[in-house]
Design brief:
The protein has 50 residues and is of the alpha+beta class. The chain has a single domain, classed as ZNF265 like (Irregular), CATH 4.10.1060. The protein contains one helix and two strands. Strand 1 and strand 2 form a beta hairpin. The termini are far apart. Bound molecules: zinc ion (ZN). Zinc ion binds next to loops. It holds the Pfam family Zn_ribbon_RanBP. Its main location: nucleus. This is Nuclear pore complex protein Nup153.
C-alpha cells in the first residue's frame, strides 16, 4: 500500500467491527460503539508507568 491508502488525519478504527471512522465521529458509524482509546487516559497511564 502506498500513500493513497493513508488514513485521514484523526481517523480511527472501530475495535469491534474494524470499520474506519472519521475524526469527528464519536461513535462507530457501523455498530454505534463508542470511540475507543481515550487519548487523555492513555497519556495518564503512560506517565504513571514510567
Ligand atoms: Zn464498529
Amino acid at each position: 500500500f502506498g500513500d493513497k491508502f493513508k488514513k485521514p488525519e484523526g481517523s480511527w478504527d472501530c475495535d469491534v467491527c474494524m470499520v474506519q471512522n472519521k475524526a469527528q465521529d464519536v461513535k462507530c458509524v457501523a455498530c454505534q460503539s463508542a470511540k475507543p482509546g481515550n487519548v487523555s487516559v492513555l497519556q495518564l497511564l503512560r506517565v504513571k508507568a514510567f
